[in-house]
Amino acid sequence: MRLASGSKEKNRQHSADLLLLQNLLSCQPGTSPFTLIQDSVVQSARPLLWHYLRNTEASKSTTIFVSFETYSLPLEVTSFIKGRRKSSDDIRREIIAAASKSQSKKILLVIDTLHPLCSLSAPFSLATYLSSLLSLSPVLSLVAIYHLDIPLLVHDPSLLRDSLGSARSRPNNRDEASLIPPNPYEPSPLTILTYLSTTIFTVHSFRQALAQNMAYHRSLPTPIFGVEEEKDGVMTPLLTSSADDGFVLHMEHRRKSGRVGANARFWMPYIPSLSPSQPASGDKPMMLSEHPLFKSAAIATPSETPVEGQTAEDEGGTFNLELTERQRRAREGVVLPYFDAQKGDGVGQGGRILYDMGIEDDFDEEEDEM
Description:
Elements: H1 2-25, E1 34-39, H2 46-58, E2 62-67, E3 79-82, H3 88-100, E4 107-111, H4 115-118, H5 126-134, E5 140-147, E6 154-155, E7 179-180, H6 189-196, E8 199-205, H7 206-217, E9 247-254, E10 260-268, E11 286-287, H8 292-295, H9 297-300, H10 325-332, H11 337-340, H12 365-368
Parallel strand pairs: 1-5, 1-8, 2-3, 2-4, 4-5
Antiparallel strand pairs: 6-7, 8-9, 9-10, 10-11
């Protein structure tokens, strides 16, 4: 009875998490005003961004895209703002102008990378700037991407008017120092972003998640990939996902009180299905634990049966633990001492101590005689 009740509660929680994910990707007003997406060089956040853009396109909502590293979009957006070589105030004025023209019930504001804004030094305030964007409209949802593998470079305001400034504000001498170390007494921009955001999405490689799951079920050390390998010249590992694999999405959603309300992992397809004629199987997000390769450890873990011609090194060991047929027969023919000691004809004869005297033994008839 308890197992059935636990299974129902688990299914109910999974349904609630999937419904919350659908509302977040559809930018329902009030669900998450500020969503932070964290990606890395191993897994880009662009596939998740296409989910947002396709959902807003299907619902005919207003989409404002602020581009720092995107030159052209394959999907139609309402306003495309180029942020390169512009000051933060100029970008904000263009966002206000685009939002004021919107007549839809939902507005999606996308910033393809936050690093140019995070690199600005005082008197620029990242928290104040993002809060001013969120206060433009009650139906506005901000979705921004932060690259975890790219270090932040704080620009010196005495040499650069703005890290997004025009070319004439840059120093003529390229050898001049234009960077200053971050202030150790101030929180990092990532700390500020995680504090302000109501939802944090982190994308991971699906194949790497499978490798980690396989290592977990085989009681092996968790493998590491990418920059964490700390190998010279290695940026991306060979174990990367393809478009057919999808990607893993970790969601951390917070309530208005600041407490974590949902913490789940999903499998996401690369291209969301919008046409009803397309097959639904494999195109919808699902819980990662319900994926066929994660349901059972026997599916994700290779068979323990040794393959013919496979050596111990191929199985991950340094020596062979298998016995040959001759060694197995020799082992079965050995009679261990405790088996011989159990033989006895009368009562109390079992459990004898069998000991063969050696040359170095000093036998005493009074003490050693049984």
